[in-house]
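Re: that chain you flagged

S.,

Sorry for the slow reply, it's been a week of failed gels. I finally had a moment to sit down with the sequence you sent. For the record, here it is as I used it:
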Amino acid sequence: MSDIIEINDLKVCFRVGVPDIERATPQVLLITLRLHHDFRAAAAKDDLQETIDYDYLTRSLDEWGKQREWKLIETLACHLADWVLLHFPVSKVEITIKKYILEQTRHVAVMIKRNQPAES
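Prediction finished late last night. Pasting the structure tokens below so you have them in one place:
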């Protein structure tokens, strides 16, 4: 399957950083999500209920993240992938998180891929 919804550079303000002072104020992050989902049922019915409501997902993600904090963007990426796989009908999620922390770079980024756990 190669059907993907991509949410590219979603701007969020989350508390992330190793030192306490860095986490004291939310900072801008850009999150890209690649959501793998079979579109055939949605296309056949032209029905949002058969796919991923990306507007709802992005609003929910923003609220979810504002209630938490992380030291590492790696931890944020793993927690976010678990949250997406738990709450949305995706078979796989790929996440890139960009953080603007080093002034001599454009950004620092982490990228992860996670699959829906196989059913036993």
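What I noticed first: DSSP finds four helices and five strands in the chain.

Talk soon,
D.
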